[in-house]
Design a protein that fits this description.
heterodimer; A: about 230 residues; mainly alpha; B: about 260 residues; alpha/beta; five-stranded mixed sheet; about 40% helix
Chain lengths: ~230, ~260
């Protein structure tokens, strides 16, 4: 039983961390591109969607080159903090966050753009500071779209394989997520283990997404108090 | 598009397909599933084989030996199987995938420990337990023969348990080589022939003793659609010409101790 529990717990840890990181970055980028206008805005939008378009192994390769022990950022992290991201669960989380980011970003941008700017102007005319407009008007109206993006991101992060394998490697107990464990079981010809892992991964994902959808459906919409 | 024009296009397309199929029928093609460590050498051997058999093609499928056997077991259309250890070929034989009596050894290799060039030199297997060695890469013993040889060497040196926290498992021996070449690990277990491919990025530190000689068996497969050509390729691997190519890449003759 421990053969399936450890990859499951590791996958959940990596997926939750990655979704959180993608959420923060995605909402920030989505708000920025929805509410500001600058030359090259749509080009930037396209670049930010690249992780969804590129094959995961390509992303994994770029991450390995940049974050590896001799990479541009990786070398700095190693010499300054002694931090090595390759072969660590944090590296796996970064890989999952990168591939999940476009899902949150696109959903967030669309959600922010669908908020009526007049409502925000009304808030400002009532004396709200910008952060208050965001917290009391924009986010309550946009959160359902953002939540949908976050759910997609979580599902994507749970199933991430190609980029994870490249930068985090396959270290049982440390970076062997469910998808990698399934892959290794199939490679080793252990069909029984592969089957149990696949069933476990499917059930876990379905349960979590159904629960998240229920929360989104029942969540209350905060109306701006007059 | 008008019906007559559409009909003409369809006819032309069908004609092209038939012509292509006819061309494929007259020329034979075999698929050789071979262990990753044989990549460079067998590609070279394949070209010479094609030169001797004009019109025929040899295609290669390189992966860890256990993975190749799993593919063959599930019906992959391979004609020849070359494995990096006898154990995997034995399993293929027991499963009835291999033509009886046609199996032969065609090369042997040596297990080595490599370190990144410019990295800390490792004097012996015991030295892997030192604190300066943070990570050691081996092939996954469950699916890579090189990983099993490495595990045996570590077990025999009494270092297997101590090294568990430092081990990074790779999908095949070339991935181990890549990890060492990039400096992501401090040492890795590969074959001498793999180390010879990247002399500018990896350095051989130790040649640990292995329980059995690293020997490569090859055999034509029972489900092959080109049994004659498959058998010819297997025989070709034992020929002086192929053996010379293998020697150039650092492989030793199969009978070497």
């Amino acid at each position: 039983m421990s053969g399936v529990a450890i990859p499951l717990l590791l996958t959940l840890k990596v997926a939750f961390t990655a979704t959180l990181a993608a959420l923060v970055a995605g909402v920030a980028a989505g708000w920025l591109l929805a509410r500001t206008r600058f030359p090259g805005r749509e080009a930037l939008d396209a670049v930010l969607l690249l992780p969804m378009v590129l094959p995961p192994t390509v992303i994994g390769y770029y991450l390995l080159v940049v974050l590896g022990t001799h990479g541009a950022i990786g070398a700095w992290l190693d010499t300054t903090f002694g931090v090595r991201l390759v072969f660590s669960w944090q590296g796996a989380a970064i890989a999952a966050a990168v591939v999940a980011f476009p899902l949150v970003f696109k959903a967030a941008r669309t959600a922010f753009e669908s908020v009526d700017p007049n409502l925000e102007k009304a808030g400002r005319s009532l004396g709200y500071a910008e952060w208050r407009v965001l917290a009391r008007i924009t986010l309550p109206l946009a959160w359902r779209g953002i939540a949908a993006g976050a759910m997609l991101a979580f599902a994507r992060a749970t199933g991430e394989f190609g980029a994870t394998l490249m930068i985090a490697g396959n270290i049982p107990g440390r970076t062997q997520t469910l998808s990698i464990a399934i892959y290794e079981a199939v490679q080793a010809g252990d069909d029984a283990l592969a089957n149990s892992l696949v069933v476990l991964a499917s059930i876990t994902c379905i349960v979590l997404l159904v629960a998240a959808a229920a929360i989104v459906r029942r969540g209350h919409l905060r109306i701006v108090p007059v | 598009m008008t019906p007559p024009r559409a009909l003409c296009l369809c006819a032309a397309f069908a004609g092209a397909l038939l012509a292509g199929a006819a061309q494929a029928c007259s020329a034979a093609e075999i698929l050789v599933s071979a262990a990753t460590s044989l990549t460079n050498a067998l590609r070279d051997v394949g070209q010479r084989f094609e030169a001797q058999h004009p019109g025929d093609t040899v295609r290669f499928n390189f992966a860890a030996s256990d993975v190749l056997l799993a593919q063959i077991d599930k019906g992959a259309p391979a004609d020849v199987f070359a494995s990096a250890d006898e154990a995997t070929m034995d399993r293929a034989e027991r499963a009835g995938r291999v033509v009886r009596g046609a199996r032969r050894d065609f090369a042997s290799n040596a297990l080595v420990i490599v370190v990144p060039r410019g990295g800390t030199h490792v004097a012996s297997i015991a030295a892997l337990r030192e604190a300066e060695v943070h990570r050691v890469a081996i092939g996954s013993p469950r699916s890579v023969p090189a990983g099993r040889y490495a595990k045996e060497a570590l077990v025999d040196a009494g270092a297997w348990d101590a090294l568990q926290p430092k081990l990074v498992l790779a999908q095949n021996v070339r991935q181990v080589l890549d990890y060492v070449a990039r400096g992501e690990v401090d040492a890795g277990f590969v074959y001498a022939t793999d180390a010879a491919i990247m002399p500018d990025r990896v350095v051989v530190s130790v040649r640990p003793a292995t329980r059995d000689t690293v020997r490569y068996p090859v055999a034509p497969l029972t489900d092959s659609r080109q049994p004659a050509l498959a058998g010819a390729f297997v025989s070709f691997l034992a020929s002086p010409q192929a053996q010379a190519v293998l020697a150039r890449y650092g492989f030793a003759p199969p009978a070497a101790p």
